[in-house]
Design brief:
Blueprint lengths: L13 H7 L5 E4 L2 E2 L7 H17 L5 H4 E3 L6 E3 L8 H17 L8 H13 L1 H5 L8 H15 L3 E4 L26 E5 L3 E12 L6 E4 L15 E6 L5 E5 L8 H4 L3 H4 L3 E12 L3 E4 L3 H5 L9 H25 L6 H26 L2 E2 L5 E2 L4 H22 L9 H5 L4 H7 L7 H15 L2 H12 L4 H10 L4 H12 L7
Parallel strand pairs: 1-10, 5-8
Antiparallel strand pairs: 1-2, 3-4, 6-7, 7-11, 8-9, 9-12, 10-11, 13-14
The structure holds flavin-adenine dinucleotide.
Flavin-adenine dinucleotide binds next to strand 5, strand 7 and helix 17.
């Protein structure tokens, strides 16, 4: 059966998105099942923020910059789902990603815009996926139909690639693992006429409780399984029976928007997924028992995931640099040489990132399939995992103790306290209210539980940076320079004889 798009409504609206989350999904938070996800305090801010951006893409002001007309249905569809076929398409996609990330200040690592390219990247290797044969379905056709289905309905996906962190020495990719009594990694239990029945856990899936669909696959770490039943990639509705979503503790809940200007609206949540005999229909499976199509593409040059994350990181760096500059001005330290140099260091990273994005755009190329790929960016994700921590460190250093010592909204409203706050807690040419709000923003970027979660995210989200460095190194072509070095070393020393 092909996923039907006859009733698809195109680009998501805020109201449609909020309503889509009321589908009896099994979301657990702090020991309790959440009854109404979009209305729960742990999710409300983030859901409303996404709804606001979804409405923007349908507004007169943004429609042409964020959507395109589907040639097949005539629906307006999000540019996040556009299959790029020209340099112009890539530019349109970049602009759309810039809007998503400007609107959300580069804080959403797993926004709908960032997840859509995961399916586009699979679409691009559909022939390879289809080369693995199964009597029940064609995996290549499945991914093409699924891409179309997501595009025409503008679905918000979460993705889950890793095994539960129980015993890393005994995972299915380890040939030497012991025979184990119980398989914890997600695996096929049986095949039926309708699809496969799966059981197991996944760690972890950001935005799972507020997504429409759950896309499951294997990251580079987990791809080389010795046990075929643990090799699978698919996507199912997030309310699929038998799937439990366990959320972590929400971050930065206290003191509202004054105390946590970012945490209040951008806690995208991270979740464990538990699958208990869940049915995955045949038309939603993209890989089964054989991971060779994905392994073959580990070293691929094509890049269909580029813009959203690159643009997000750029926005995040711009925000951090600007906040640090405003703070240096607000406490009269901007003229100090050391402070200016630190700000310059932040600006250097931000500018380097912009130059690299331009380079990736410059290196874009047309694939044999007629899709337009951005240039290679493997090193950039690794670079940001280390550089993000440096940005946070610089921001903290520039702020001094002010990053923690600020009055609250209620302190400011107290008639008893206010004269003291006006006198002792104002800044250079700025009043105490502005100054405390500015510093609370820095606190939310670099100190609060929200800020710390963001920093942990930046380090791990692209997978283990050490593994990524090793993979980069293994495919890094140095043959030419190494030959030249050897040739130089074989020559007699210049001062000989
Ligand atoms: C905030 C956040 C959001 C995330 N969102 C998502 C998401 O949406 N979807 C998703 O699929 N994943 C997501 N991830 C998971 C992320 O991809 C993983 O955290 C990352 O791949 C590292 O895996 P792990 O956490 O299981 O750590 P582990 O693999 O358990 O590593 C633990 C430690 O052991 C070391 N180690 C592990 N294996 C080896 C080895 N073979 N040799 C040497 N050292 C080793 C690691 O370097 C690390 O120090 C998210 C992670 C975070 C923190």
């Amino acid at each position: 059966m092909i996923l039907d798009v006859t009733t698809a409504a195109g680009a998501m609206t805020g109201a449609r998105y909020i309503e889509s989350l009321r589908d009896d999904r099994e979301v657990w938070l702090d020991g309790e099942r959440v009854a109404d996800v979009p209305n729960h305090p742990a999710f409300r801010g983030m859901v409303n923020e996404l709804a606001r951006i979804y409405d923007l893409q349908n507004s007169d002001e943004f429609r042409d910059r964020m959507t395109f007309v589907s040639p097949e249905t005539g629906n307006r569809c999000s540019l996040s789902w556009l299959l790029p076929r020209s340099a112009e398409d890539l530019k349109r996609k970049r602009l759309n990603s810039e809007i998503w990330n400007e609107q959300s200040w580069g804080q959403l690592g797993r926004s709908p815009d960032i997840l859509a390219p995961h399916i586009t990247a699979l679409y691009a290797i559909r022939d390879s996926l289809g080369s693995v044969k199964h009597p029940r379905c064609d995996f290549g056709e499945n991914i093409a139909n699924y891409h179309r289905f997501c595009q025409e309905n503008d679905l918000f996906l979460t993705h889950a690639l890793g095994d539960p962190q129980v015993d890393r020495s005994q995972q299915p990719q380890n040939e030497q693992r012991n025979v184990i009594e119980e398989e914890l990694a997600l695996h096929v239990v049986e095949e039926t006429g309708e699809g496969v029945i799966i059981t197991g856990g996944k760690q972890l899936a950001t935005a799972a409780p507020i997504s429409n669909e759950t896309y499951v696959s294997l990251s580079a770490t987990f791809l080389r399984r010795s046990d075929p039943k643990c090799v699978l990639a698919f996507s199912i509705p997030t309310n699929s029976p038998g799937m439990k979503i366990l959320c972590r503790e929400p971050v930065s809940q206290g003191y509202g928007g004054f105390g946590h200007p970012l945490g209040l609206n951008y806690d995208e949540q991270d979740a464990m997924l538990f699958f208990e005999e869940v049915l995955v229909p045949w038309d939603r499976i993209f890989m089964l028992y054989d991971s060779s199509p994905l392994v073959a593409h580990l070293t691929r040059r094509t890049n269909f995931q580029g813009w959203p994350n690159l643009v997000r990181i750029h926005q995040r760096m711009k925000l951090m640099t600007a906040v640090a500059t405003l703070i240096a001005e607000a406490i009269g330290v901007i003229e100090y040489r050391e402070v200016s140099a630190k700000l310059g260091e932040m600006a250097t990273y931000t500018e380097m990132w912009r130059h690299a994005m331009d380079g990736i755009e410059h290196n874009a190329f047309l694939t044999d399939d007629g899709l337009m790929s951005l240039g290679d960016m493997n090193a950039m994700n690794i670079y940001f995992s280390q550089m993000s921590a440096r940005m946070v460190e610089l921001l903290r250093e520039i702020c001094g103790s002010g990053i923690i010592m600020q009055p609250s909204e209620k302190d400011l409203a107290s008639a008893d306290l206010r004269p003291y706050l006006d006198r002792y807690m104002r800044g250079k040419g700025v009043d105490v209210e502005y100054k405390s709000r500015l510093f609370r923003l820095a606190h939310d970027l670099a100190v609060s539980s929200f800020g710390m979660r963001q920093e942990i995210y930046e380090y791990w989200h692209g997978g283990d940076p050490s593994r990524n460095r090793i993979n980069l190194m293994r495919n890094y072509d140095q043959a030419d320079v190494m030959e030249r070095i050897k040739e130089m070393l074989s020559r007699p020393l210049a001062n000989e004889g």
